[in-house]
C-alpha cells in the first residue's frame, strides 16, 4: 500500500512544487483508473443486474414448475398405462389359448408408446430449461456490456477536454508517421 501512496506523493514525478503536472508512471495510474471504473460499474450496475437476474430466476422457476407438472402428468399416464397393462395381463390369462401372441404385442406397444411419451416430455423439459438459461445469460451479458460501455463513454466524455483530445490525436498521428517511415 505504501508504494501506491508513494506514487501520488512522490515529488520525482512533479515538475516543481506549486505547479500542475501529470503522473506519467503507467504502472501506478492504470490500477487506480481500473479500480475507479470497476467501482463505478459495480455501484451503478448491481441494482439493474440483480433485478434482471431475479426476473430471469422467476421465469426459469416457472418453466421448471411447468415442466414438473408435465412430468407429473406423464407419471399419471404411466400409472394408468401400467393399470391397463395389468388389465391386459388378466385378460391374457383368460384368453391365453386363443390369442396369446396378439395380447403380448399390444402390451409391448402400450409400454413402448408410454416410454416414448415420457422421453419426449423429459427432453422437452430439459431443452426448455437449457434454452431459458442461455437466453438469460445472453441478456445479462448484453446488459452488462451496454452499461459498461455507457459508463466508459460517460467517463471518457467527462474527462476528455478539447486540448487533451487534440494532443492525443497529434501524438497518434506522430506514431503512425513513425510506423510508416519504419515500414518504408
Automatic annotation (TrEMBL):
Pfam families: ATP-synt_B. It comes from the Eukaryota. The chain crosses the membrane at residues 32-49. InterPro entries: ATP_synth_b/b'su_bac/chlpt. One of its GO terms (molecular function) is proton-transporting ATP synthase activity, rotational mechanism. Residues 64-98 form a coiled coil. In plastids the F-type ATPase is also known as CF(1)CF(0). HAMAP family: ATP_synth_b_bprime (MF_01398). This is ATP synthase subunit b, chloroplastic. It comes from Brunellia trianae. The gene is atpF.
Amino acid at each position: 500500500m505504501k508504494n501506491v501512496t508513494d506514487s501520488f506523493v512522490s515529488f520525482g514525478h512533479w515538475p516543481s512544487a506549486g505547479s500542475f503536472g501529470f503522473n506519467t508512471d503507467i504502472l501506478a495510474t492504470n490500477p487506480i483508473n481500473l479500480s475507479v471504473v470497476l467501482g463505478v460499474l459495480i455501484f451503478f450496475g448491481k441494482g439493474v443486474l440483480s433485478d434482471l437476474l431475479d426476473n430471469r430466476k422467476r421465469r426459469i422457476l416457472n418453466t421448471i414448475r411447468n415442466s414438473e407438472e408435465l412430468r407429473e402428468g406423464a407419471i399419471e399416464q404411466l400409472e394408468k398405462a401400467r393399470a391397463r397393462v395389468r388389465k391386459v395381463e388378466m385378460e391374457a390369462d383368460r384368453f391365453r389359448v386363443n390369442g396369446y401372441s396378439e395380447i403380448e404385442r399390444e402390451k409391448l406397444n402400450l409400454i413402448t408408446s408410454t416410454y416414448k411419451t415420457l422421453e419426449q416430455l423429459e427432453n422437452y423439459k430439459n431443452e426448455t430449461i437449457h434454452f431459458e438459461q442461455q437466453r438469460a445469460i445472453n441478456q445479462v451479458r448484453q446488459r452488462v456490456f451496454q452499461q459498461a460501455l455507457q459508463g466508459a463513454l460517460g467517463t471518457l466524455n467527462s474527462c476528455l477536454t478539447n486540448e487533451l483530445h487534440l494532443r492525443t490525436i497529434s501524438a497518434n498521428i506522430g506514431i503512425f508517421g513513425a510506423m510508416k517511415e519504419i515500414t518504408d
